C-alpha cells in the first residue's frame, strides 16, 4: 500500500480552469478549503513523475471527508450472501488444493489422498513450505466443514471442533467462564489465560485448535494443558468410524501423534472440573507477548 500513501497536491487543490491550480487548498480531512497543510502538500512531488489522480482516479466525493459521515462503509452484501462452493485448484508443480464443504467429502478425499496435509490457517504448513522447503502435493482446506467448526456446551463438558479458530475459542471460553459455576471452569480459565500470550492476534484469527494439536510441537502452549485437563480427542477415519483417545496418550513423540493414515482429528472434548479440582497454566519465554516458550506446563491438582 506504500504507493497509495504517496500524495500529490493536484488532488487537494481546486482548479479554476483546466489543470491550472488556483492555489486554494482543500483539506484532505474535511474536504473544505483551508491552509492547514498547504506548504506541506505543495512541496510534495509524485514519485513516478505522473499525477497521482491520473493513474488512480479519485472523485471529489471520495476525498470529501463528509462522504464518510453520510454513509458508513460496509462489507459488500453480495459477498456475505454468496453460496460457498467446493473447490479444486491446481498449482505449480502439480499441487492440488481442495476445499470440501461436507465431512463425507473430506473423508473421501483423505481416503484417496492419505498423505494429504489438512490446513486451516496455514500458519504452520506455510512456514514449512516457504522456509523449510517442504513439499506437499495435496492440500485440503477444512475451514468450511460444519462438523469441524462445532462449539457446544454439553452436560459434562465442552465440545470444540478441530477447525475452530483460536480467537473464536477464546471468546467462547470467556462466555462459558462468565456463565458457569467457578468450580467447573478451572480448565477453561487456564486455557483462556494461556491463549492471552499465544502468538499474536492475527495468528489466532487464522490458526485452528486442531492444527495446533496435530502439529505436536514441543513448544506448544496448549498441548500440556489439554493433557492436564484430561481432554479427550475424537478421531474419525475414512469410513466415518469415531474413536476417542486421551490427550495424554495422543502424543507419541517429537511431532508424532496417534493418527493413522486416513484418520483426522474431529473434535476435542474438555470435561468440567470437579469440586476442589484446580488446573493452572505456566509459560516462560524471553518476551511476555508473541514469543515461543522456553518452558510450558499444564498442572492439575484435585484436593
How would you explain this protein's 3D organization?
With 303 residues, the chain is an alpha+beta fold. Helix 9 packs antiparallel against helix 10. The longest helix has 14 residues, at 166-179. Strands 7-8-13-9-10 form a 5-stranded antiparallel beta sheet. Strands 3-4-6-5 form a 4-stranded mixed beta sheet, covered by helices on one side. It has helices spanning 2-5, 38-42, 52-55, 60-63, 65-70, 77-80, 103-112, 125-131, 166-179, 186-196, 201-206, 209-215, 223-228, 247-250, and strands at residues 13-17, 20-25, 87-90, 96-99, 117-119, 138-141, 151-153, 157-161, 232-236, 242-246, 251-253, 256-257, 264-271, 277-285, 293-302. It is globular and about 75 Å long. Among the domains are: 87-141, 2-Layer Sandwich (Uridine Diphospho-n-acetylenolpyruvylglucosamine Reductase, domain 2); 146-302, Uridine Diphospho-n-acetylenolpyruvylglucosamine Reductase, domain 3 (2-Layer Sandwich).
The ordered string of helix (H) and strand (E) elements is HEEHHHHHEEHEHEEEHHHHHEEHEEEEE
Query: What's the count of strands?
Result: 15
In terms of quaternary structure, the protein is single chain
Which CATH C-level class of one domain is it? Alpha Beta
CATH topology of one domain: Uridine Diphospho-n-acetylenolpyruvylglucosamine Reductase, domain 3
Return residue spans where pLDDT drops below 50 for at least 5 consecutive residues: 16-21, 40-60, 64-68
* Helical residue percent band: 25-40%
Label the CATH architecture of one domain.
Answer: 2-Layer Sandwich
Helix- and strand-based class? alpha+beta
Largest sheet: 5 strands, antiparallel
Rg over CA atoms, rounded to whole Å, is 26 Å
Distance between the termini: 57 Å
Number of distinct helices: 14
**Outline type:** globular
Percent of sequence in beta strands: 25-35%
Pfam families: FAD_binding_5
Cofactor: FAD
Protein name: Xanthine dehydrogenase
GO molecular function: FAD binding; iron ion binding; oxidoreductase activity
Amino acid at each position: 500500500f506504500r504507493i497509495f500513501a504517496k500524495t500529490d497536491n493536484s488532488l487537494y487543490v481546486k482548479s479554476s480552469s483546466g489543470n491550472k491550480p488556483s492555489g486554494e487548498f482543500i483539506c484532505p480531512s474535511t474536504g473544505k478549503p483551508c491552509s492547514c497543510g498547504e506548504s506541506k502538500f505543495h512541496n510534495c512531488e509524485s514519485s513516478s513523475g505522473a499525477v497521482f489522480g491520473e493513474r488512480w482516479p479519485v472523485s471529489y466525493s471520495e476525498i470529501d471527508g463528509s462522504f464518510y459521515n453520510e454513509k458508513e462503509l460496509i462489507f459488500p452484501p453480495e459477498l456475505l450472501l454468496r453460496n460457498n462452493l467446493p473447490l479444486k485448484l491446481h498449482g505449480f508443480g502439480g499441487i492440488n488444493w481442495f476445499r470440501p464443504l461436507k465431512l463425507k467429502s473430506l473423508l473421501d478425499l483423505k481416503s484417496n489422498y492419505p498423505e494429504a496435509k489438512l490446513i486451516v490457517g496455514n500458519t504452520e504448513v506455510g512456514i514449512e513450505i516457504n522456509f523449510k522447503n517442504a513439499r506437499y502435493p495435496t492440500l485440503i482446506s477444512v475451514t468450511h466443514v460444519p462438523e469441524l467448526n462445532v462449539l457446544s456446551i454439553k452436560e459434562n463438558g465442552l465440545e470444540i471442533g478441530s477447525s475452530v479458530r483460536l480467537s473464536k475459542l477464546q471468546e467462547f471460553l470467556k462466555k462459558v467462564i462468565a456463565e458457569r459455576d467457578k468450580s467447573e471452569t478451572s480448565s477453561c480459565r487456564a486455557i483462556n489465560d494461556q491463549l492471552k500470550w499465544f502468538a499474536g492476534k492475527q495468528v489466532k484469527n487464522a490458526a485452528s485448535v486442531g492444527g495446533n494439536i496435530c502439529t505436536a510441537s514441543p513448544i506448544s502452549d496448549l498441548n500440556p494443558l489439554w493433557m492436564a485437563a484430561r481432554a479427550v480427542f475424537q478421531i474419525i477415519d475414512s469410513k466415518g468410524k469415531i474413536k476417542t483417545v486421551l490427550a495424554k496418550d495422543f502424543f507419541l513423540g517429537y511431532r508424532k501423534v496417534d493418527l493413522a493414515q486416513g484418520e483426522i482429528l474431529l473434535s476435542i472434548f474438555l470435561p468440567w472440573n470437579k469440586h476442589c479440582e484446580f488446573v493452572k497454566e505456566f509459560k516462560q519465554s524471553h518476551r511476555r507477548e508473541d514469543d515461543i516458550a522456553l518452558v510450558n506446563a499444564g498442572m492439575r491438582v484435585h484436593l
